[in-house]
User: Fold these one by one.
Assistant:
Number 1:
Amino acid sequence: MSSIAGIAIIARLTLREAVRRRLLWVLVGLTALIVVLTWWAFGRIAEASPITGPVQVLGISQVTVMLAFMFSFILAMTAVFAGSPAIGSDIESGLLLAVLARPIRRSEVLLGRWLGLAVVLVGYALVAGYLELGAVVAATGYVPAEPLVGPIYLAGESLILLTLAIVISTRVASVAGGAIAVVAYGLAWMAGVMGGVGEAFDNNILRSVGVMARLILPSDVLWRGSAGALSPTDNVLTAGGVNANLYRFSPFSGTSPSLPWLAWCVVWIVGALVLGIVLFRNREV
Amino acid sequence: MSGFAIETRELRKEFGRTVALADLTMTVPRGEVFGFLGPNGAGKTTAVKLLLGLTRPSAGQGRVLGAPLGDVATRRRVGYLPELFRYQGWMTAREVLALHCELARLPRSSWPKEIAEALELVGLADRADGRSDTYSKGMQQRLGIGVALLGQPELVVLDEPTSALDPVGRQDVRRIIGALRDRGTTVFLNSHMLTEVERVCDRVAIVDRGRVVAELSMAELTQERGVRLRVIAPDGAALEVAARYGPTRVDGEWLAIDGIADADVPALVRELVASGAAIHAVVPTRQSLEDRFMALLGADGSAGAAAESEAEVDGGSDVGADAAASGSSGSAEVRP
């Protein structure tokens, strides 16, 4: 049984490490830079093509979703590179030997590492996500369908990748583990695109590929949710002469995940953490 | 309460097909400074990890402070310095110690005193607020020893505690171990620095290929005495005289007589001089741990074992020098 106190000790240690080793400050600096650039670039776009009708809205929304895609990529990479050295590197360097000889369980170490990094990532995703969205709204006046939900899905996506990276780190050295997680993320995204094509063209094989990939690694479920939330409403799409159903299957749009898919994301994270604990318990230090 | 700090019975650890520890059966009484010796690859560090619950045995049983191996609560009463020590480089020594106070679940009110005492004991008080990744290896090892002593543990496991230390640091460690013994703390010292072990331990176990091949009391070991003489004799007369006092060996100009009582040495010298021998030096000796170690590990007929143990002894850079020093301690030169 893990104790909350043990998890909290390691989570606090992880947070302090993120602050002291400048991870947090790098993220804050990058966010400030991206927000300013977003505000400036979207201002120039709005100047060149002011929003006067659905077509301009569609154009701005596409750039907004691309911005979100870039941000989701940064978040995914941050999650992978923060998570992949979490356990394996500390075992290899000998850092964990002194810690594990204390009255603390391996499950507490793993969950504490996950919690500490999750706080950093979710905090970063929400603060930076809302600031960037605020810059888009301020510069262009474009308000997506569900502006408040978009960054939450992105934060969820980063949690899934963080979990994946930490589970891998219980068995694989950090660089190799990080590479595996990045490739898995890319494949899941690609399979999601194929699934969208399958939906659009009613192709069962491609549809199944999308579903299988989302079951194995549900990061794309949340990315598509975020892209959908940042797209225009169906009314705007229809007014612009776009088939809203087809549009939402394109790689740079999506729909809010259904409740079962959201539940699967939670179950996946919990299940992956349990697997990580089992792997870590059986790992020689 | 069990009288033993550590009890193991047929403890075995395999990594795949490799047998790291074959059959470890031993007991360490509470309050004793216990040396755990053996050549590289003998299974010493594996044994330590098993005792601390850092790895699970493939077979066998063990108890530490009366609790089964791996018991999490017992770790509150155990301090550990790993062989491969490394602490959070971004933390200061004071912060590392505070972290381990927290990990050991010591009451927060006791932390300042515990930390100050640990820093003082290991001589890091004036560098306590420097980042630990700026420390030399020796300073990091001192920090590791400080970490192991937090919370006055009942059992302290030190895995090669002097490997990175200079002679002053080693003396400090001997002093710390002595203080722990006075406090009644059991110390399990895993080392290949034979003279360090010889100086601080009450008892030693020698392991080879995952088995305890001998357990020795240091008190018994040091009772085994002898004498070495540098003697130039005209014929075999000196050998005849010496042989009457004990088993005799000739090593160049040196004559070694084992098991001779200290009180008989003057009579031996007188008889040798009377027989016409020229005596240039008389050196009382005792059997060192190194002698016994080499005899045990080299005696199984395996050249590999002997070579390995020799490499191990050489590995401790001070061993040769210290052994020579201990061999000549109390020597008196007699000039004819």
Number 2:
Amino acid sequence: MRYLLAALVAVAAIAGAAHAYPQFQIGMDPTCTGCHLSPAGGGLLNENGLGVASTLGQFGGAPEAAHGALVGPDWLTVGGDARFAAGVVEQHKLNPAAFPMQLEVAANAKLPAGFAVYATVGGARGDGNRPITFLLLREHYVQWQADEGSNYGLFLRAGRFMPVYGLRLAEHDEYTRRYGQTPLYGETYGVAAEYIEPTWEVHATGFVHDPLQDPIERGNGGALDGEVRLGQLQLGLQGRYAKSADEARTAGGATVKWKASPGLLFAAESSVIHQTFAAGGARNQIASELFTSIFFNEHWFVDVGLGQFDEDLKAPKVDLEGLDVNLHWFASSHLELLFTNRVQTIDLTKGGRSSGWSLIQVHYRL
Amino acid sequence: MNGIACVVAALLASGCSVSTDDRPVTADYIAAAILAPGCGRPACHASGANAKNYTFDTVAAAKTAMKRLVVAGKPDGSQLLQVMGEATRTKGGIMPPDGPLPDADIELIRTWITDGAAGL
């Protein structure tokens, strides 16, 4: 029973929310807005995104919400995500695991004059003492777009969303997300000005922590993310600052994405984080990820990722290294199966503790 | 500006090896630098999940939890170390469950408890 509980807690820690696949950028569309309604990517798909979903699915199917049954008026887009995972989590011994990852519905309503309202409602692992915590209003914001209907130009957002920083990988357990600046449920309230062109984009966000729902990001601050695309190469720079009652973090990072061939994409992200603690003390951290995506065809691809996180550059033997192998299969325009695997070890080459997992994920997009 | 300078310095120093652990051995530092990021994660011991009625995502919450899990001067009798340590590890119930804490972090906590667990 104890093993089962430990495994359930472990998998709850791994559970998360679906986002975009930045692996598709450059190869399919130059920007996130090529497929998504959000200027930062993730969540509901636009018309082109639905077309891509139809193409990706090996057995096709109508890509619209509920296979076309929930298609409403032009001004309203609805959707959702359900994810479930099962497999084993290893830490000294193998523990079986099966758990829900995500159950979330989303809607976007176009308003006149370039305005839109976007909202998601879902469930989370809550505090049994406070049932309201099982309800998660992860994203909700008002968006204004200067060039309505275009994928490009100026976007302004105000509300609750993730401040844009880095590669924005869907895999939130990658070290650059988990230990970086975009942890799971790290959405904040903020305002963002975002400008997107085919060859470059910039996102500037000012944010405060959520005073209503229990926040993961407890700081207030700002983030700046810029990307330049030179053919099949994309280069990015990021900066972020957040200060809470307990600590302050200043982060700077760089990203590279290179579509080396139609079937091969390299992506890398590295951030340095300077953290000072209100009670005294400071440290510098580095979180890095190197991702290689190999596309077998339009329905199958595999990611091989190498991650490294050093929680304190001045402390010995606290570095964490991980290897990920994730196999994606888009069975239909709504159904994805993902076989995700990780081995990780502390203080590589010195015999540090190791752990990992091997999970089958079922992802159904409403 | 100071923060940016530190980030640049850290980048330059990232390739250097280190051999001594001179981190502060205090309750506040352990709460903020080890327990909050290691245990106070979403779906685990963050406020919104409060697994097992333990919350670690702020210094104040972590110190409250530590009071229930630490016996000053007795590291081996402290549940905080037991759930992270070898004894639990062999039974498969180690925390954090999706990846262990570094031994250096556990040793820092052990030293603090052995020295009297001041600051709680």
